[in-house]
Hints:
- By secondary structure, the protein is of the alpha+beta class.
- The protein has two domains: 16-168; 173-275, Arc Repressor Mutant, subunit A.
- Helices cover 43% and strands 18% of the residues.
- The longest helix is centred in the middle third of the chain and has 19 residues, at 150-168.
- It is globular, with a radius of gyration of 19 Å.
- 32% of the residues are buried.
- The model has no long low-confidence stretch (mean pLDDT 88).
Amino acid sequence: MKHISLTGHRSSHSISETTRKHHSIHYKEYAPGKHLQPYISCFWTMTSERDLEEPILHRVVPDGCADIIFDLNEHSYREVASIVGTMTKPIFAILKGGINYMAIRFFPGGFSRFFDSAMYNFTDQIIPLETISGKEERNLTEQLFQENHVDNRTRLLERHLENLLRINNRSDPVATNAIYNILTNKGNIKVSELSRIVDTSKRQLRRKFDRWVGVSPKAFCRIIRFRNVLRMVKHDSKCNLLSIALEGGYYDQSHFIHEFNSYYGLNPSEFLRSKNL
């Protein structure tokens, strides 16, 4: 099977709403090194210039990816690293005090290249990293705390991931090919067609997606379709919702509204009003 790359399908993080409303919070992404690019979408940081005066509600929207997030505030030292699994609904996180996060965002299917854990164990959950890595995670956490510059922290994470890849690297070309086809078609592909393309049964494909992505092929298609339409809505200030819904693959406006509300927590009209505030 030919080599397949997901690097053209980077997911945008749903931080823009928070940073737009709270200018003291900053979000940045950093590209991984060449050897990690097939599996890692980016490293990212989220920091605040000063302690927040009041808690902030931060919306995190499903994107098909999984993250490992390090909370590098001193008060968080004992519970610093968390796995955020593939999401099928929005998460509403409370930000308070000083914000100092650094994280790894994995492409869909990328997490299990480094860790021998099926992704369905983490779906819609936030789980301490030490539950699957133990002492290694604690050592990594200590080293991250000792580094003060993001470039040094990024290099540290890259070395750690490259070592995990050498030790644990496993792959599934069928799952990778299926993920690639869903992303390329922006979620608009039937599972029966996908099964035919990757030459495996729908039941076997479901098992592979449970293992590598954490959700079924159909659920993953829905998430990717939503993310594509969300991107379209964000970038068109005078958008026609029905036109965008139909262009994005929804069969009518009510279907679009229901899915948008399920994944974002607002209906499209409410989203547009909040975007324009």
